[in-house]
Amino acid sequence: MVFAGACSSDPNTPNKNTDLIDAKVDSLMSLMTLEEKIGQMNQYSGFMDFTGPRPKEGQQAKKLEHLKKGWVGSMLNVHGVENVMAVQKIAVEESRLGIPLIMGFDVIHGYKTISPIPLAETASWNLEAIQKSAEMAAEEASAAGIHWTFAPMVDISRDARWGRVMEGAGEDPYLGSLVAKARVKGFQGDDLSAPNTLAATAKHFAGYGFAESGKDYNTVDIGTSTLHNMVNPPFKAAVEADVKTFMNAFNVLNGIPATGNKYLQRDLLKNQWDFKGFVVSDWDSVGEMIAHGFAKDGRAAAKYAVSAGSDMDMESYHYIEQLASLVEDGEVSEDLINDAVKRILKVKFELGLFDNPYQYCDEKREKEVIGQQKFHDQVFDLAKQSIVLLKNENNLLPLKKSGQKIALIGELAADKTSPLGNWIIAAEDNSAVSVLEGLEKYDATNEITFENGVKLVTSQPTFAQELKINNTDSAGIAEAVASAKNADVVVMVLGEHGRQSGEGRSRTSLDLPGLQQQMLEAVYEVNPNIVLVLNNGRPLTINWADKHIPAIVEAWQLGSQAGNAIASVLYGDYNPSGKLPMSFPKNVGQIPLYYNYKSTGRPAPKGENEVFWSTYIDSSNDPLYPFGYGLSYTNFDYKNLTIDNRYKEEGKVLVSVEVQNTGKREGIETAQLYLQDEYASVTRPVRELKGFKQVELAPGEIKTIEFELTNAELGFYDNDGEWLVESGSFHIYLGGDSTSQLKQSFQITVK
Ligand code: GLC
Hints:
Blueprint: H1 4-7, H2 18-29, H3 34-40, E1 42-45, H4 59-69, E2 74-76, H5 81-94, E3 102-105, H6 118-122, H7 127-143, E4 148-149, H8 173-188, E5 201-205, H9 224-240, E6 245-248, E7 252-253, E8 256-257, H10 262-272, E9 278-280, H11 288-291, H12 298-308, E10 313-314, H13 318-328, H14 334-350, H15 363-369, H16 373-386, E11 388-392, E12 402-409, H17 411-414, H18 435-440, E13 445-451, E14 457-459, E15 468-469, H19 477-485, E16 489-495, H20 516-526, E17 530-535, H21 543-548, E18 551-554, H22 562-570, E19 636-646, H23 647-650, E20 652-661, E21 667-677, E22 688-697, E23 702-709, H24 711-714, E24 716-717, E25 723-724, E26 728-735, E27 743-748
Parallel strand pairs: 1-2, 1-10, 2-3, 3-4, 5-6, 6-9, 12-13, 12-16, 16-17, 17-18
Antiparallel strand pairs: 7-8, 11-18, 14-15, 19-20, 20-23, 21-22, 21-26, 24-25, 26-27
Helix pairs in contact: 2-14, 3-13, 3-14, 7-8, 7-15, 7-16, 8-9, 12-13, 16-22, 19-20
The structure holds alpha-D-glucopyranose.
């Protein structure tokens, strides 16, 4: 390895010394040929799984040849110490300069020990637990030789038709920004060069969650106010948390593909936000600019992408095939190449890869770290906190622990793969604790019978295969009805297959898929004492269930310990505390549906028999369940909301409220503060989340919660992307969800 001597850093010098790292990068760059520089900008998918369209035939041999030439800077989808060592040794020991690869992987919600899907984790509103979840994922993935995760996905979305809502933090930019920071810090830790931390990726920049009609990869056309106030904040928060990389998005944003969007990647990200890391393209998003109708051919695509600030090319091959000649022909300045390569090398130095390219490749550590019981305990704890109680009439829940005949129904109840959710490309299928297992082994002496009921799918798909839903074969319903007839209580686990959400899984309906609704109604006919447990990766339009079913539990896809967490909540040993991070629509026609909507000039509700109001003639505007909503086995009361307006003297407004547990058992409540700026130079939402605090209260206990509002909460981005605070009238709403009516108002005058 020619370069080894030049990079051996002083062992006492931390890899955070940016001046030293810059000096090392410059000295390495001075040795590199143009092709070797471009090689750092080239990322190949490994010789294992793939997470995009199947690699083009014959590419594998070329990848090996390029590895040996030092024309590969990174690989993805290579995991496990043995496999990572195999390719890293080629790059380090067979290429001229021996520059180590940075190994990337989609560690989205765990590596082998799987935590709840990110949308479910967000429902816990527990930022510390979310950060720890990312730390755990980094421990396991780094032990498997991985240096870099393509997470957190921070795309805000209000459209549950889009399959990737499972991967994000829901519809709100304030909550989404805090979750983004927590996850970046969890993955990267305090020392990126430590062998148990990962470089993180804020993705997909930008606007991907606003794909028209919720159809994946579709056009995104949004206004500047939405871009600045809804889309960008979590990305900016990730930069503030020192995220090392960004990934751009497949979509066009207002006509310009994100990959070729200079405003996004250079003007905003690298200049205005001063982002020092590097941008990796999404899978072949460089090449897809041809299909977008933006680039004539691969050469143009490479030119537009590198000029716009895409530093690394994932799996399009256009950089490695076109950039050298573009530079030689004077169409692309070598300065752009140098900037990209410096950014990439800097992250590799910060990871400690030049000190020891194999420090993440310790087979002993791999065996010891992955799958530890403490990780299962941790995901069990977070899974319980992610469960949202949507309905509990007549206190059907919690279940009695003895003397009950419980009919457990639904194929998903025995499914040990679906509870893992999507984006589990390193975890083993069939590795989750199912609801059936969780209930059977629980410390209760009830008689449990189980019936699959109607089939949900006709084939078990792999990660990259299409799912086939059973819409015709009602076999199993009769058995389900029969088992329900004699039961004291029926627990039905219904919802979506684990690969029915995620990338490439948009739906036009949000109803229970297949024949599950038919089975639910048939069972209800013989026994209405039903607890519906939802396993799903997105909000569902469960109107009938909401009207008829006495108890409904939103249990998402909770990961490796799903069944144990669900059993703990059903039996009441954990009092559900989750709150929805996304509105549940009544019907798909309401989408995009979100709580922080604009008033319009004709705000509903309309008067009786009037039509000229912003609403529908066949539905109200209300969601089935609102953002921030979640019940408990106890009750909470909010009172004595007070405001101490010190804006004039100190630039802040102090808010306090009393929360009381008025029920008979302890519980955790997430008190939420919403703000309305009544009138502004850019219209503001009718309310916006600007603070939340979790409190644990014993029966009867009262706690005072305090919030502080400053310009950081009172302002908004104007259409030039500048942060603005304006004089005017503001309203505060405080409560347990986004519909709270406990209100106080105040005025501020901005000098
Ligand atoms: C996929 C996804 C992206 C992922 C990448 C690598 O297409 O869009 O989120 O990180 O490819 O697997």
